[in-house]
Design a protein that fits this description.
The protein has one domain: 3-Layer(aba) Sandwich (Rossmann fold), CATH 3.40.50. Helix content is 35%, strand content 18%. The model has no long low-confidence stretch (mean pLDDT 94). The structure holds zinc ion. It holds the Pfam family Response_reg.
């Protein structure tokens, strides 16, 4: 069982993402903001985290930093989906984001990125070249 956690405050986009993963082998859960996502992650770390950036209470960057700082969560693959970022945004790499998807993003691209991260599995972000960088999921 591969668990995907989606952190997304927008109901329409969350519904779209949940529908997208319905036919995949992923077990998907959804959090309404970064704070709720962090609670879920501390309770039961997912295999992959897919997160929005602009969210109430705790935004995507705060969530990502908290996840990377946690003992049990530091190595979780993280994909970001956001309409606020441009491809190659330097904050993605410096915060330990594994894949950057900019809205609107074709379904296949989202599915492909999450599947590749699930296959890659947990990995460290403290090395100079991280395992996820070799997947080239962050456009330069
Ligand atoms: Zn990574």
């Amino acid at each position: 069982m591969t668990v995907l956690l989606i952190a997304e405050d927008d109901e329409d986009i969350a519904a779209l993402l949940l529908r997208m993963f319905r036919k995949t082998p992923f077990t998907v859960s959804r959090a309404r903001d970064g704070a709720e996502a962090l609670e879920v992650i501390m309770e039961a770390p997912p295999d992959v985290l897919l997160t929005d950036i602009g969210m109430p209470r705790m935004d995507g960057w705060e969530l990502i930093r908290a996840v990377r700082a946690g003992d049990r969560s530091a190595e979780i693959p993280i994909a970001v989906i956001s309409g606020q970022l441009h491809p190659g945004d330097p904050r993605a790499g410096s915060n330990g984001v594994c894949a950057l998807l900019t809205k609107p993003c074709p379904n296949e691209q989202v599915l492909n990125a999450v599947e590749r991260l699930a296959t890659l599995g947990r990995h460290s972000h403290t090395t100079t070249v991280t395992a996820c960088q070799e997947l080239h999921l962050i456009p330069q």
